[in-house]
Amino acid sequence: DQQVKQNSPSLSVQEGRISILNCDYTNSMFDYFLWYKKYPAEGPTFLISISSIKDKNEDGRFTVFLNKSAKHLSLHIVPSQPGDSAVYFCAASVASGGSYIPTFGRGTSLIVHP
Amino acid sequence: DGGITQSPKYLFRKEGQNVTLSCEQNLNHDAMYWYRQDPGQGLRLIYYSQIVNDFQKGDIAEGYSVSREKKESFPLTVTSAQKNPTAFYLCASSILGGGFQPQHFGDGTRLSIL
After folding, report:
1. pLDDT, tens digit, for every residue of B60-107?
2. I want to staple A63 with a disulfide (CB 3.0 to 4.6 A). Which of A44, A76, B90, B114 is the partner?
3. CB-based contact B42 A45, cutoff 8 Å
4. How would you classify the pairing of strands B109-113 and B10-13?
């Protein structure tokens, strides 16, 4: 039973346009939500996070929105660039002994066309 | 340059053999983690450790073993009891405490069965 779901396996966007990646979760106990970006044959790199007490967090071209009532979060990339082409993992975490251990979704492969 | 080093990048195993994947970090992080990624799947937690000489099972620990004799090292052994070991294995580390801290990942080891 997946606690974190990314229902779109892939997304194709033109350079300069907005990319919107979506994620749903089922566990209302999650404290933090985060996005990781992964290139082929590399490990994921942390992109952006949001606390459960906020509804928006922005970092440059990347903005994450959290809708707790709908148990939904989204990542907006504006404007999209070809270098953004990667797999994006949504994750949600709870505190465990001082560390936040994330539960990952299956990922969405973003392709940004020039 | 601080980071996480996983070796080897590619590993082949004969059926019935144990094999050990190496993970070393020089970030001075207390917590270390092992994940498994299968095609079309998210990252699933195998084991994690928050302190030297202590570790906890994750969601899919069966057929795996770990040790944490040094802060900077967290090797994973894939035993012959793991019936489907072919996968991409990722090691991660994070700071403990002080609120949310994201995980830092290595570049992974791809294990294949001959």
Report:
1. 999 999 999 999 999 999 998 888 999 999 999 998 877 788 899 999
2. A76
3. no
4. parallel
